[in-house]
Amino acid sequence: VSDRIKNPWGERTPHPAASSWLERVDLQLASGVSEHDVRWIQSACVLCSNGCALDIGVLDGRIVGVRGRGVDRVNHGRLGPKGLFGWQANNATDRLTRPFVRRDGELRETDWDTAMGAVATRARELLDSIGPGAIGFYSSGQLFLEDYYTLALVARGGIGTHHLDGNTRLCTATAGQALKETFGSDGQPASYGDVEHCDTLFHVGINVAETQTVLWMRMLDRLHGPDRPRLVVIDPRTTYAAREADVHLPIRNGTNVALLNALIHELIANDWVDRDWVNAHTVGFDALAQTVASTSPEWAAEICRVPAAPIREAAQILGEAELLLSFVLQGVYQSHGATAAACQVNNINLLRGMIGRPGAGVLQMNGQPTAQNTRETGCNGDLPGFRNWQNDEHVRELAELWNVDELQIPHWGPPTHAMEIFRYAEQGSIKLLWIIGTNPAVSLPDLQRIRRILARDELLVVVSDAFLTETGAFADVVLPAALWGEKTGTFTNADRTVHLSERAVEPPGEARPDMEILLDFAERLGLRDKNGRPLVKWRTPEECFEAWKECSRGRPCDYSGLSYEKLRGGSGIQWPCTDEAPDGTERLYTDGVFVTFPERCEDYGHELVTGATFTEAEFKAMGANGRAILRPATYTPPHEEPSDEYPFVLNTGRTVYHFHTRTKTGRAAELRAAAPDAWVELAPSDAERIGVQEGDRVRVETPRGAIEADARVTGIREGVVFVPFHYGYWDTDEPEGPDGRPRAANELTMTIWDPVSKQPVFKTAAARVVKR
Amino acid sequence: VKLGLALERLLSGEQRLARDYRAVAERRRDDHDVHHECSSFARQCEAHAEALRPHIRRYAKGASVDAPGPAIPEPGGLELLDDLRSLFLAAEGVSILWMMAGQAAQAARDRELLDVVRSCHSETELQVKWLVARIKVAAPQALVAT
């Protein structure tokens, strides 16, 4: 059992290129339980964006284990350590089982009627006195599609507020945005099956061995098999993938755009460009070539602090690849120049004509398990069905579908992003903030500021969650929510695979599924359509899924050919799934035709450095019309650079054993024991200079705040200090939280976001480290 | 030739705009994107001024400038909108001056100046675009929900 803690990836099953990935069924059961005693209920894992299919083992009405589904295309039976052990959180003794309402400064247990009555009454008062702009919603990356679509309808169509975003803004906003900028719409071009075919893997800021363990198993089985693909890794840390790489470029944080521009410079200078394909299928080559004309490897070497020679070597590997598969994640999305850099990775694949074929493509990965669904359903700063807020026809379609007036659906600008929602709450114009299944008091940047906002007297904070989190402690109303395994619904992983997850057990106590909570709210608020009928027409998850199919019909994320019945029994299915493609679609853009038609695209795009929005007229003037857009970006330095006072660059990130703020993984004994506390990673030379040895307690400080944790001396690059962001205060011995021993990485981070995707920057801040 | 005068006016326009951006960046520290974007626009304006300076020397006949800059708005309930609107007006003014300088540079067959105008003017136009987009986002909440 604990071997999967020591070796999170398990045994290798190597295989040659273009042969299928072998099945290996991973199983974990509570001690004393046999595989044959339990009832198995179909589901998938919700502890990262990989979306591994599994069955939930049930005995006497309790979850007692999980087993990977060998039949599924995503994992072929495998599970990672979080999936194997994380289910135990459902059985935790500190689950929320009753609603709470704050009275006289204390959270007091109450009944649903009282709690929901308080929320609905205040919402109604605000709607009548100020209007929808006073109400905001901040949701999660772990709800089900049905929860999200109901939320999108209630917030955008019912209340009519523009302020609906999720913590997926912190993990996946740049992925979606980069796809919109380059291809005209969100939608993952490639597929996990491409790992079996590629001859070159390109990892840009993705610590896949820790973030998507099962995807890394898939890559390892190629890397350790015959026909080994070559591997180029860009990462300031010596990650597991970096150790397997042919070329590892440990660049200084915040310099992705400079390095990628140098790689593009080399591709063009050496004519490693598929000119015919580029001419036929892209626009913008000349502007891109002009932008990278002077960005030589020597130029980038100065900025990125890696030698020019390995940059050239990496460019050659990319330039000579015949099947190039690129992966991007938080090292890009949460860093400086996020969308600009993510688009340059798209550009590299486009210049090489490496898209839409087996083994050739881009995976702009997601962070959280159901992040994809927030983007599809319109909960992550988009309109549902990848509709374009600047396109009146798209808004009209939505209004017709929901039977509401077009003006009811806010579309005067891009939906308010998370950091702006908190800004409005800080200024007092948002007066009711409903936080669903997420923990901003640990996960947002500059926590002192976030705590100050959540504590405002004028702000009614509603929190629905399965546990009383650090955020819940600031709530005025707490609503107990059902977890995965306690409700039925669907969700979609980073390669567009849709899975059905059935209810295996009853929620504890009075906990309810999020969709039911929202239905109750809509009813109490009396939300109606144009004909005075109830706005939300569904009562069950399956009815909601059927409504969603209609919303997605004809759009790039087309679910119309799917049903619960079809998702039962076999493998998950990739959208678009339609009458014409009833088995789903493995990869997009196989014909080299993209979604850049003005009437169809999800976004008219942005200038990547400032984030200035293009209009319909400007988009039309580019004349893309089905061709992909090569968007250039010049390098600009990060907003906060190291100084004499703060000489380190702060990097924050993840460990393989935990997910998000550990509300679930911190309640699984094996995972908790594997990584019980925060730590601070330093390079050997830096550690020596400040007189710190492995295990010494150190203090990391930035202009925002400080944390204290034990040092680990690792292969991180000199001048960079790394802190995992999972650790808050709920399980410490110091109830005063940050006033005792501060340890949340976001005590340190700064309030700034990417100008295009609005994803906060967690990977560049200036810091100092001192020994305690 | 009045080109010297036009360029001096452009120079002081950029300098004033840089000051305005800096002032807004300082005042709007809590609107974090505005703070950072205006800081980098200020640096951009200063770079524009530097790029212009050698050309002014070539055309300068000691003509001095100039009209006072846009007034710094009084603080109030809609301060952010006021700030962004003032910056927009100032940046638009600078943008037109770049356009004029570009036309004149063509007439003067001054290729070097033309190169400076081309690279700087497109950046000023982007500043204007960003300001418009930011005002569009800020206006509904400031004007309706407060």
What's the short story on this structure?
With 772 residues, chain A is α/β, with parallel strands linked by helices. Chain A starts with a helix and ends with a strand. Chain B is mostly helical and 146 residues long.
Question: Secondary-structure blueprint of this entry?
Answer:
The complex is a heterodimer of chains A (about 775) and B (about 150).
Chain A: H1 3-6, E1 27-29, E2 39-44, E3 53-59, E4 62-68, H2 81-85, E5 100-103, E6 106-109, H3 112-129, E7 135-139, H4 145-159, E8 164-166, H5 173-183, E9 200-204, H6 208-211, H7 213-223, E10 230-234, H8 240-244, E11 247-249, H9 256-269, H10 275-281, E12 282-283, H11 285-291, H12 297-304, H13 308-320, E13 324-328, H14 330-333, H15 338-351, E14 361-364, H16 371-377, H17 392-402, H18 418-427, E15 432-436, H19 440-443, H20 447-454, E16 460-465, E17 477-480, E18 489-492, E19 497-501, H21 514-525, H22 541-552, H23 564-567, E20 573-574, H24 616-622, E21 628-629, E22 648-653, H25 669-674, E23 679-682, H26 684-689, E24 697-701, E25 706-713, E26 720-724, E27 766-771
Parallel strand pairs in A: 7-8, 7-15, 9-10, 9-13, 10-11, 12-21, 13-14, 15-16, 16-17, 22-26, 23-25
Antiparallel strand pairs in A: 1-4, 2-3, 3-4, 5-6, 5-17, 18-19, 19-20, 22-27, 24-25, 24-27
Helix pairs in contact in A: 3-21, 4-21, 4-22, 5-15, 9-12, 9-13, 9-15, 12-13, 18-20
Chain B: H1 3-27, H2 32-59, H3 79-107, H4 111-144
Helix pairs in contact in B: 1-2, 1-3, 2-4, 3-4
